[in-house]
Amino acid sequence: MRILARRTRGLAAVLAAGTLAVLGLNAPAAQASPGRQAPQAQQSYVAMGDSYSAASGVLPLDPDAALLCVRSSANYPHVLAARAGLALKDVTCGAAETKDFAGAQYPDVPPQLDALSSSTGLVTMTIGGNDNNTFIDAALACGSAGLATFGIGHPCQTLYGSTFDDQIDNGTYPAIKAALASVRAKAPNARVAILGYPWVVPTAPVAGCFAKLPIASGDLAYVRDLQTHLNSAVQRAAAETGATYVDVSGVSEGHDACQPIGTRWIEPVLFGTNFVPIHPNALGESKLADRTAAVLGLS
After folding, report:
1. Alpha-carbon distance 137 to 197, whole Å?
2. 42: domain CATH number?
């Protein structure tokens, strides 16, 4: 999700220990040492998606990524690849939309689909949160409305009603479905997994939350419902294109942006530790890797 990355514009791939694997694969079997098996090639893994996959705001930055992507070398794809012994090609990029799969996001950032081929074995992603500016607009709108009422009532819901939900139904869902279909076409032999987005806000007001995340108490349920709707659209698109949906709603409950450091997986707007707010921190990315590994049977 872009949240603030696109607006501000300020906002290494894992070194494949596969060098030995490739050498072993290319060497004739007869040359293998007696009693030892030649090393196996690692599964080709392509990580696609937006800033929740890129871990925008988490240090250290990936030196192989374009600066505008604000990609971290501690993102969940790097964690997952290192743990499962996968040969990672990471093309995640902060602020990515579904259109950036087929088109260049920035002059030095080619279409993400270019990373795929028939030899790709695994693809993961988060995508859709930036389409139609849905989540960035909702976050800014609800924050502004909350400040105007000093955190009282549900001003955002009153002002915007079903606007954001309509955008998801009419624009985001079909775009995610089309993006997943394009991934399948480029990587027909790959297992494709798309993650839902972890909870940003709690189920009920938390003491001190408004100072960090200025959303009115009555709008917390409204924002939760919006995120539920977005994740449902992702899940539906996955089911209709043969992709695996990685549901993170259960495991991320109680780890929203209002929780203290060490508990929260998402950093708040104010007083957070990331330089990109409302995005997963290093702990959150590690937990997303845990969940993905469990769903895909890689743990």
Report:
1. 17
2. 3.40.50.1110
Whole-model pTM?
A: 0.85
**b (16+ CB within 10 A) / e for 238-250:** beebebbbbebee
Catalytic site includes residue 51: yes
| Catalytic residue (choose from 154, 229, 255, 279) | 279
Out of 51, 53, 73, 252, which one is annotated catalytic? Answer: 51
Phi/psi of residue 243, each to 5°?
A: -90, 160
Domain that holds residue 108: 5-296
Our answer to whether residue 217 is catalytic in this structure is no
Beta-carbon neighbour count of residue 59 at 10 Å? 12
For residues 233 and 51, give the distance between their C-alpha atoms in angstroms, rounded to a whole number.
Answer: 19
What's the number of domains the chain is made of? 1
| Exposed / middle / buried, residue 265 (Cβ in 10 Å: 0-12, 13-18, 19+) | buried
Residues lower than pLDDT 70 in the chain: 1-40, 136, 150
